[in-house]
Amino acid sequence: MVTTDEKRPPTTSLDFDLVAYLKAQKIKVEAALDRAVPPSAEFPKIYEAMRYSLLAGGKRLRPILCLATCEMLGGTVDMAMPTACALEMIHTMSLIHDDLPAMDNDDYRRGKLTNHKVYGEDIAILAGDGLLSYAFEHIAAQTSNVPPENVLKVIAYLAKASGGAGIVGGQVVDLESEGKPDISLEQLQFIHVHKTGALLAACVVCGAILAGATEEDVQKLTRYAQNIGLAFQVIDDILDITATREELGKTAGKDVAAQKATYPSLLGLEASQNKAEQLIEEAIAQLRDYETKAEPLRALARFITSRKN
Ligand code: GRG
What we know:
- By secondary structure, the protein is mainly α.
- It has one domain: Farnesyl Diphosphate Synthase, CATH 1.10.600.10.
- It is built from 16 helices and 2 strands.
- Strand 1 and strand 2 form a beta hairpin.
- Helix 4 crosses helix 10, helix 9 runs antiparallel to helix 10 and helix 10 packs across helix 11.
- The longest helix is centred in the last third of the chain and has 28 residues.
- The N and C termini lie far apart (46 Å).
- Bound molecules: geranylgeranyl diphosphate (GRG).
- The site of geranylgeranyl diphosphate (GRG) has 21 residues, from helix 5, helix 9, helix 10 and helix 11.
């Protein structure tokens, strides 16, 4: 007997040109970010500091995931762009605060001096605060052609993902785990799922909500996003050991220096790479129903395990 699954065409990303796709989406996102947070004549210093980190490059993976999910479900780039920009604002503010001396204490990010090295710690904290608040203002004020109840759902989801039960909570446990190289795999997974996975999940889920996704879509895409989110951080742990500062655009080898447990320290490098690949296959399995429309999300998932920075 032929099952429903066997009748479906095989889904492959082989024909999908991810490099061209990433380049095109990145150009759109960076133009939108530049417009979203223009220089201010009234508050020149804080806007300059916010723009310094927001426009410093980076892969723009989070906004691209949001746009790809919205488009996959029949929405448009215009519907999702304000949220996509807001996701990058929140991600950037988390990097600015993470780099502060009180946290990870790094001098370089995205190949440039960190925000506090250029503007001082006081302004860097405030630049992060400014970006966080503005992210929500931007979604509320700029989203069009989306029912207001869906905009509200996006704001609520993103606020939760960014808060004490999401990124902030994960970061607290991460800070507490410094100097404790023998925490359990479960504790490490808790940190990764919250510190990194929550915002990556928000990118996909918010993109879906904006497109008017069904509850079933949201559930499948949440599983996709949780798997890629964890895989992303497993690869981040690997790159901290295997990549150079030039490749990373930030200091390498920080986890070993801080005596932090990581996937490679608990499982070894090869098993960690296998774990990330297994998570990506599980993520891709959630996309079966979307057939060729899911090519960007499949390719983005595979990119996570092959990335070099
Ligand atoms: C969000 C309210 C709020 C507070 C932030 C400091 C902090 C609380 C959390 C730290 C979160 C953090 C820095 C997690 C690491 C995530 C990660 C793997 C970042 C690197 O992402 P890439 O590789 O970077 O996508 P680019 O530069 O390409 O965007």
